[in-house]
Amino acid sequence: MSMLTPPGMGGKYRITGDKYPRMRRPSGRRRVVLAVIAATAAVGLIGWGTLQLITVFTGGDKASAAGRASGDCDRGPGARASASPDAAAASRKRLPEPGRIKVNVFNATPRGGLAKDTADELKKRGFAIGKVGNAAKEYDKKVKGPGILLGAKGTADTAIPVLGTQLAGAEHRSDARKGDEVDLIIGTQFKNLAKKADADKALAALAAPEPTPAASDKKNC
Questions:
Q1: How many angstroms separate the CA atoms of 193 and 202, rounded?
Q2: Highest mean pLDDT (candidates 22-26, 83-87, 158-162)
Q3: 218 CB burial (10 A radius; 0-12, 13-18, 19+)
Q4: What would the 3-class secondary structure string for the chain be?
Q5: Which of the residues 133, 137, 151, 167 has the least number of beta carbons within 10 Å of its own beta carbon?
Q6: Within a 10 A sphere around the Cβ of 206, how many other Cβ atoms?
Q7: pLDDT tens digit string along 46-70?
């Protein structure tokens, strides 16, 4: 063993001749990689912290939530504030004017003169009058309510609802007939037609366009 060899060390650390062990410093490349990683982490932390500060001071989340709650959904494709003029016109076209509705008036009660008096009043209100007389045997003294409005299936959502504004509580029925004529069969509980002012209000409400489902669209946003 050489005099330069520390006690207890041998093997590759043994100094012989003119060879000495070399203790190398860490590689410079490793230090560069570590420095880059540290710098990247620092930049990321700084950016995240800045974003949190902006959110705190501007109330970004609350503002977004408030915007959604205050009506952002109204601007969706399904939201409409009111019916368009075209929709309103289309709704009115489905209902005929009273003058285009021909009404046959039949009395199914024991009281005389009801059919004629009722027909005269309907004529004053603009309806066209057809047949006037006693009801057929199948209805005579068998109509318990104020009356029955009877017509073809095609009149169920046109002429019959319009005539129905004149007699509250009347039963609406359809049969196999053809054409647009409708029958008003007076029942035992009939007293009078609806007051003209009330009938006009009911007719105006019937002709008004249905409201759009804007409120339900907001709930489903």
A1: 13
A2: 158-162
A3: middle
A4: CCCCCCCCCCHHHCCCCCCCCCCCCCCHHHHHHHHHHHHHHHHHHHHHHHHHHHHHHHCHHHHHHHHHHCCHHHHCCCCCCCCCHHHHHHHHHCCCCHHHCEEEEEECCCCCCHHHHHHHHHHHCCCEEEEEEECCCCCCCCCCCCEEEEEEHHHCCCHHHHHHCCCCCCEEEEECCCCCCEEEEECCCCCCCCCHHHHHHHHHHHHCCCCCCHHHHHHCC
A5: 137
A6: 14
A7: 766 666 656 655 655 554 555 455 5
What are the structure tokens assigned to 59, written together? 């109330």
Q: For the purposes of burial, counting CB atoms within 10 Å of the CB of 167, is it exposed (0-12), middle (13-18) or buried (19 or more)? A: buried
Q: What sign for the dihedral angle of Cα 118, 124, 128, 130?
A: positive
